[in-house]
Design goal:
261 residues; alpha/beta; Rossmann fold; 7-stranded mixed β-sheet; 9 helices
Length: 261
């Protein structure tokens, strides 16, 4: 039996490292504010919400301003402790059925080993007429980093897994439907960020807990020559001073039962 795609224990450790370093939240904030606007536009009051993934301990209170009581689950123990959350691996979670009428999932479901199982668990946690809104990393995320790591592999003489595979919008809509969500919607938002160096990008990814979590990753650190090749590739993709990197965000929504008009 092949190993799981993602190293779940390492994912928790990397989220704990981000908590200790001080998390980089600019993408989380962009997504979270967008989700709050989307929820606010729904013509109903949500009474009990579930927040899946919480690197910012203020997020639950901000969600509670528009959605009533909020419970939090989080795969990183330190983030969970800061948010007063339960530490949960999302695809190994057995929720109380029908407990929530809203679920918000940001930035953790794209690193679970059984995404259909995680989506099904969230659907079971929602009451009839419940709403899931969330965000995933899309397939066009980090193209410059991918190219840089290919350059490193050329120097090292072997291709090894560096960057996570990503789900496509059409596939994600199908997974939502298969989990029992009605009227699934997937929107794409591409965020461009300019970096002065490859090292600055890597530093941000560490503080996002977004570095390599693949079970098949190399356990050997990059050599100086490999790192230099990656940095040179990243710099060459820019204007000589800064390089623009892209983060693709897939916003999703689906109902456990289509609400009446």
């Amino acid at each position: 039996m092949p190993p799981p795609l993602f190293d779940t224990a390492l994912r928790a450790l990397r989220r704990d490292r981000a908590a200790r370093l001080g998390p980089e939240l600019f993408l989380f904030e962009r997504v979270f504010e967008d989700i709050l606007e989307r929820i606010g536009a729904v013509p109903r009051r949500f009474e009990r919400a579930l927040l899946v993934g919480c690197p910012d301990p203020t997020a639950a209170d901000r969600l509670a301003d528009i959605a009533g009581r909020v419970d939090v689950i989080e795969p990183g123990p330190l983030f969970a402790a800061a948010a007063g959350a339960a530490t949960v691996v999302e695809d190994a979670w057995e929720p109380e059925p029908g407990r929530y009428d809203l679920a918000v999932a940001i930035g953790t479901l794209d690193t679970v080993n059984d995404l259909p199982r995680a989506l099904l668990a969230i659907r079971l946690a929602l009451a009839p007429g419940g709403l899931l809104v969330g965000a995933f990393a899309g397939g066009e995320t980090l193209p410059q980093l991918r190219a840089a790591m290919r350059s490193a592999d050329e120097v090292g003489g072997a291709a090894v897994p560096h960057v996570h595979p990503r789900i496509e919008p059409s596939a994600l809509a199908g997974l939502l439907a298969a989990a029992g969500f009605e009227r699934p919607v997937v929107d794409v938002d591409r965020v461009t960020v300019s970096y002065a160096s490859f090292d600055r990008l890597v530093a941000d990814l560490r503080r996002m807990a977004a570095t390599n979590l693949l079970s098949g990753r190399s356990r050997r650190p990059l050599s100086r020559q490999e790192r230099d090749a990656a940095a040179a590739s990243f710099s060459a993709a820019g204007d000589g001073q800064r390089t623009v990197e892209t983060f693709e965000i897939l916003h999703v929504a689906g109902w456990t039962e289509v609400p009446p008009d």
